[in-house]
Amino acid sequence: MVRLRLQCVLWGCLLTAVHPELHTECRGQKYLLNSQCCSLCRPGEKLVDECTDVIDTKCRPCGNGEFLDTWNREKYCYQHKHCDHNLGLRVQRQGTSETDTTCACEEGLHCTSEACDSCAPHSSCSPGFGVKRIDICQPHFPKGYPML
């Protein structure tokens, strides 16, 4: 009886070594493809060839004017944002292979959204009004003046 149990354990070990369990999840900078864990491409690189059972994932750096900001398996890089001077935009920070370009508005203008895709002129306040926000005026009262 002990010998039978020992043989079962031995056969179980041999079968596990010959037919390993299929991967169901990958850790770290890996992704699952055809039951094996493949390496993701680094930020600033795009996927050229997926891994096989004999070679790892093949990646290539993004081209000039392109970026990818995360570990990925993308076949194409994103184009850097264009700061259109005709919309009042200027480059605040030039993009790299890992970051997008950020835009800001020219002097006297402010961004119309958080993404800063376009600009609008600052408000000009009438006499007796002051700036509440860069785009809103409010009545201006001297200190100690009773508010109505």
From TrEMBL:
Disulfide bonds: 38-51, 41-59, 62-77
Main location: membrane
Topology of the protein relative to the lipid bilayer: Single-pass type I membrane protein
Domain named TNFR-Cys: residues: 25-59, 61-103
Signal peptide range: 1-20
Keyword Transcription set for record: no
PANTHER family: TUMOR NECROSIS FACTOR RECEPTOR SUPERFAMILY MEMBER 5
Stated name of the protein: Tumor necrosis factor receptor superfamily member 5
Subcellular location field: Membrane
This protein's GO CC annotations: CD40 receptor complex; external side of plasma membrane
GO biological process: B cell activation; CD40 signaling pathway; defense response; immune response-regulating cell surface receptor signaling pathway; intracellular calcium ion homeostasis; positive regulation of developmental process; positive regulation of macromolecule biosynthetic process; positive regulation of multicellular organismal process
Superkingdom classification of source: Eukaryota
Gene name tied to this protein: CD40
GO molecular function: signaling receptor activity
Keyword list, A-Z: Disulfide bond, Glycoprotein, Immunity, Membrane, Receptor, Repeat, Signal, Transmembrane, Transmembrane helix
Role of this protein: Receptor for TNFSF5/CD40LG. Transduces TRAF6- and MAP3K8-mediated signals that activate ERK in macrophages and B cells, leading to induction of immunoglobulin secretion.
Ranges of the TNFR-Cys repeats in the UniProt entry: 25-59, 61-103
